[in-house]
Design a protein that fits this description.
Helix content: 10-25%
Structural class: alpha+beta
Catalytic activity: alpha-D-mannose 1-phosphate + GTP + H(+) = GDP-alpha-D-mannose + diphosphate
Largest sheet: 6 strands, antiparallel
Organism: Polaromonas hydrogenivorans
Pfam families: ManC_GMP_beta-helix, MannoseP_isomer, NTP_transferase
GO biological process, one term: GDP-mannose biosynthetic process
Keywords: GTP-binding, Isomerase, Nucleotide-binding, Nucleotidyltransferase, Transferase
Distance between the termini: 45 Å
Radius of gyration: 25 Å
Number of strands: 28
């Protein structure tokens, strides 16, 4: 990084705000509501959220910090991403999803009035972090002067999947333009005309705004949203890195995007163009384009093989998947669900998810492998009165002290060391040793070692649902008066 660029970054003191919401249904079956695409290790073994955090760390050299806005259910996934990116930050937890206007209002109300806030979606892919940083700095003069600054990607093809921003006159600073208009996602013929027009950009959903500017704009254009968020922040509680807005006030808030609620009505909105590579990773076609094609246009991720096929994308990280004689197909293989779709229907995957939800298909929202703050478990097999899970506990982590009314459990250690509380006794188990937890007995599983603990759990009983858990103590603040998930 050049000395001048570093001086500019230090001069403006930008605070990144990462918007971690979204269910990611367009990338089903890899992305699901319980584990959306921003948390999936999709690129080079890292999640899109981790890539985003690493990209914005340049704005606080020496002491990276960020504010993440996320759902309560995803709080520990966000913390893990912060650790992986080596970025310090706080996490504001929305009781319910209320779209970007409310999320950005929470951030503005949590910040000092003079702070420059850089709002970034958590699920975009921008490989050139240096070019991204230069783009943001180009927007700083306008943002510091009181404008709402948005960033637009120079379009490379007539996309119907993105909204567009029409540029107006050049601002006096010479680094940004006034926004002439926002254009909805167009039909194909309109998109072609827009591209030929030459003064439009794709709307990237990235914003740079002084906190006080955003507060005033919300108060002017969306006073009901601003008031609800004001009440929610005033009644917020804090727990370590977590900030929880007062739920009643926030639940009452109207759900609307910041584009509709504020930007389309505001007089002073500037746009800075970005000519670098960018993707919102918003469909399987977009994911496919992250892979290099072969001579027939096939793109392979994992153990796929395309034979006599053209323009076929295969995502197969777990087992061999062969496409024979196919054309223009998307094949997405996961341990418990398979998607085969025409590439021309990639934008309609979310409709499939909605259909699966109406049929109460568990795979619509839940993976077989489920992340937990202490590690994860994988449901290997299940029958009428039994269930088998593979459980991994991180070093130093422990599950809650708990009991079950309807099931007993057998635990077999296959790797590492387990410290087990069972009633009034503590037992230390190593590889190839096992124990039995009778129904109704208080118990706890802990990893006292420095390597991961893996064990096989066999549950048996009349009811095996995840809501048959009563907690007595919990490291992660999940004690509830009613039984809750593990």
């Amino acid at each position: 990084m050049s000395t001048r660029k570093t001086d500019l970054i230090n001069a403006y003191d930008i605070t990144p705000v990462i918007l971690c919401g979204g269910s990611g249904t367009r990338l089903w079956p890899l992305s699901r509501k319980s584990f959306p695409k921003q948390f999936v290790p999709l690129i080079k073994g890292k999640s899109l959220l981790q890539h985003t955090l690493e990209r914005v760390a340049q704005f606080n050299p020496g002491a990276p910090r960020a504010l993440c806005i996320a759902a309560e259910d995803h709080r520990f996934l966000v913390v893990e991403a912060l650790k992986a990116a080596d970025v310090k930050g706080r996490v504001m937890l929305e009781p319910v999803a209320r779209n970007t206007a409310a999320a950005m209002a929470l951030a503005a109300l949590q910040s000092r009035p003079e702070d420059l806030l850089l709002f970034c979606p958590s699920d975009h892919h921008i490989p050139d972090a240096d070019a991204f940083g230069t783009m943001v700095l180009q927007g700083c003069p306008a943002a510091a002067a009181g404008a709402i600054v948005t960033f637009g990607v120079v379009p490379s093809f007539p996309s119907t999947a993105y909204g567009y921003i029409q540029r107006g006159m050049l601002n006096a600073n010479g680094q940004s333009n006034q926004v002439a208009s926002f254009i909805e996602k167009p039909a194909a013929d309109k998109a072609q005309l827009l591209l030929l027009q030459g003064d439009v950009l794709w709307n990237a959903g990235i914003f740079l705004i002084q906190s006080q500017t955003l507060r005033e704009a919300l108060r002017l254009h969306a006073p009901d949203i601003f008031k609800s968020c004001q009440q929610a922040v005033a009644g917020a509680t804090e727990d370590g890195v977590f900030i929880r807005p007062e739920p009643t006030a926030f639940i009452a808030c109207r759900a609307e995007s910041v584009d509709y609620a504020v930007l389309e009505h505001h007089a002073n909105v500037a746009v800075v163009p970005f000519a670098g590579a960018w993707s919102d990773v918003g469909s399987w076609n977009a994911v496919a384009e992250l892979n290099t094609p072969d001579d027939q246009g096939n793109r392979i991720d994992g153990q796929g093989m395309a034979v006599q096929a053209t323009n076929t994308y295969i995502y197969a990280p777990h087992r061999p998947v062969v496409a024979l004689g196919t054309q223009d197909l998307l094949i997405i293989d996961t341990p418990d669900a398979l998607l085969v779709a025409s590439s021309s229907h990639a934008e309609e995957v979310k409709q499939v998810v909605a259909l699966l939800e109406t049929k109460k298909t568990p795979q619509a929202v839940q993976h077989r492998k489920v992340e937990r703050p202490w590690g994860w478990y994988d449901s290997v097999d299940a029958g009428a009165r039994y269930q088998v899970k593979r459980i991994t506990v991180r070093p130093g982590a422990k599950l809650s002290l708990q009991m079950h009314y309807h099931r007993a459990e057998h635990w077999i250690v296959v790797k590492g060391t387990a410290l087990i509380t069972r009633g009034d006794e503590e037992v230390l188990l190593t590889e190839n040793q096992s124990t039995y937890i009778p129904l109704g007995v208080k118990h706890r599983l802990e990893n006292p070692g420095k390597t991961e603990l893996e064990l096989i759990e066999v549950q048996s009983g009349g009811y095996l649902g995840e809501d048959d858990i009563v907690r007595f103590e919990d490291t992660y603040g999940r004690i509830a008066t009613q039984p809750t998930q593990a």
